[in-house]
Amino acid sequence: MTQSAMPQNATQNDAPLSLADLRSEIDRIDAAMHQLLMERSEIIDRLVQVKHTQGTEGGSAFRPAREADMMRRLVERHRGLLPLDTVESIWRVIIATFTYVQAPYSVHADLSGGEAPMRDSARFHFGFTVPFLPHMGARGVIDAVAGSRGDLGLLAAAPSPSAADPWWTALEAEGAPKIIARLPFVERDDHPAGLPVFVVSHPIADAAVREVRVYSLRVTGWSAAAGRAIPAFAEVVVAPDEALDGAALLVSLPPGHAVDEVTGALAEAGAGIRAVAEVGSHAATHKVVRPAARP
Ligand SMILES: C=C(O[C@@H]1C=C(C(=O)O)C=C[C@H]1O)C(=O)O
Fold first, then answer.
1. Which of 63, 67, 134, 181 has the most beta carbons within 10 angstroms of its beta carbon?
2. Lowest mean pLDDT among 36-45, 128-137, 216-225, 242-251
3. What distance in angstroms lies between residue 17's CA and the mean position of ligand 1's atoms?
4. What is the mean pLDDT of the chain?
5. CATH code 3.30.70 region(s) in the chain
6. Does the structural domain 46-50+59-204 have CATH classification 3.40.190.10?
7. Whose CA is nearest to atom 9 of ligand 1?
8. Nearest residue CA, atom 2 of ligand 1?
9. Which DSSP string corresponds to 89-103?
10. Which pLDDT value is given to residue 292?
11. Is pTM beyond 0.95 here?
12. Which fold has domain 215-279?
């Protein structure tokens, strides 16, 4: 038991508390947590005014850099018997809902790769107050985000190394939606909502995290050799593109690598580079090898 969770007039050496006393302790803690959540919402009220004065409010109040940082710190300080999955999901609901009360938004999700994992991811990361709008296909999601004020779109990040439809080409144009985050913020092998998901929104230049950069590449002369030439540090999804020997690539580059390293390797393997466009960026993956707390 931590000091803050102890009754004000007790120490660890006191006689054991009765069930009624322990329950009244739980009631005291629940009331304090609720009070703190209400205080948090008052801060958000003032934060909305500050963002408005600074002109930093945009279509969406979602700030992926800030959220990735908060989730990393949460995981690092977590101790005790409460499972990390539970702590993470509670904070995801708190943060996503407070974002929603700043500026209402919906989450559009592409269910074409399988409904259950995508729905689990959306609910785990955004809770039940934020509206969930299902789509059958990535392009429907991107169109809905493009036509909204500040909605978010969820697209499977790497369902497989190949895709039938190069949906990411719809993110190429200036002003088109961009990838702004990758979920879960904190990865682990047994994550309860572990489907890797890209979050797309209107471009958020000032608030974007630039650790992992994501590019759309159009290539001619695509071949198995070109595929093998792509450096191992790059995460790549390949789809057929227009011309017979054309391919559209979605390439994610970890910190410290440039897209030239990939285009150079492709050119050496005989492929022609038709176009390169940055289609977003997100925080580097924070991987927890062993969850900090397990029952
Ligand atoms: C509060 C903010 O807005 C959003 C809500 C957050 C929260 O409730 O903690 C954190 C980041 C943002 O997505 C902020 O920009 O700091």
1. 181
2. 242-251
3. 39
4. 89
5. 215-279
6. yes
7. 95
8. 99
9. HHHHHHHHHHHHHHS
10. 53
11. no
12. Alpha-Beta Plaits (3.30.70)
